[in-house]
């Protein structure tokens, strides 16, 4: 579990390495996931839905 320490009157969440968590970098990385080819994203979603449902019993599909 990350530690919370006080650095100059600021609470900073530390990663497992002891370095401060860079929220701006994390948000930038998440935003970059939204960029991309819409068709590719649709195909990936369809593949993922099929993969999650293919071994489930009839009537218990997650994505009917």
Care to describe what's here?
- The chain is α+β, with helices and mostly antiparallel strands and 64 residues long.
- The chain has one domain.
- Helices cover 44% and strands 12% of the residues.
- The protein has a two-stranded antiparallel ribbon.
- β1 and β2 form a beta hairpin.
- The chain is elongated.
- The two termini are 38 Å apart.
- The mean pLDDT is 80.
Summary of the model, kept short:
44% of the residues lie in helices and 12% in strands. By secondary structure, it is α+β, with helices and mostly antiparallel strands.
Please tag this protein with its features.
single chain; 64 residues; alpha+beta; two-stranded antiparallel sheet; elongated
N- and C-termini, Cα separation:
38 Å
Encode the helix/strand succession as letters.
EEHH
Main β-sheet, spatial strand arrangement: 1-2
Could you tell me the strand content as a percent range?
5-15%
Rg on CA atoms, Å: 20 Å
**Sheet of most strands:** 2 strands, antiparallel
Number of continuous helical runs: 2
Percent range for helical residues? 40-55%
Shape: elongated
Total number of strands: 2
Class inferred from helices and paired strands: alpha+beta
The average pLDDT value, as a whole number, equals: 80
Task: Tell me the quaternary state.
Answer: single chain
**Uncertain parts:** none
Q: Structurally, how many domains make up the residues?
A: 1
């Amino acid at each position: 579990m990350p530690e919370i320490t006080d650095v100059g009157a600021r609470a900073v969440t530390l990663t497992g390495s002891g370095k401060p968590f860079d929220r701006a970098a994390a948000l930038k990385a998440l935003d970059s996931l939204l960029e991309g080819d819409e068709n590719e994203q649709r195909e990936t979603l369809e593949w993922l839905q099929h993969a999650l449902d293919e071994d489930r019993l009839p009537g218990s599909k997650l994505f009917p």
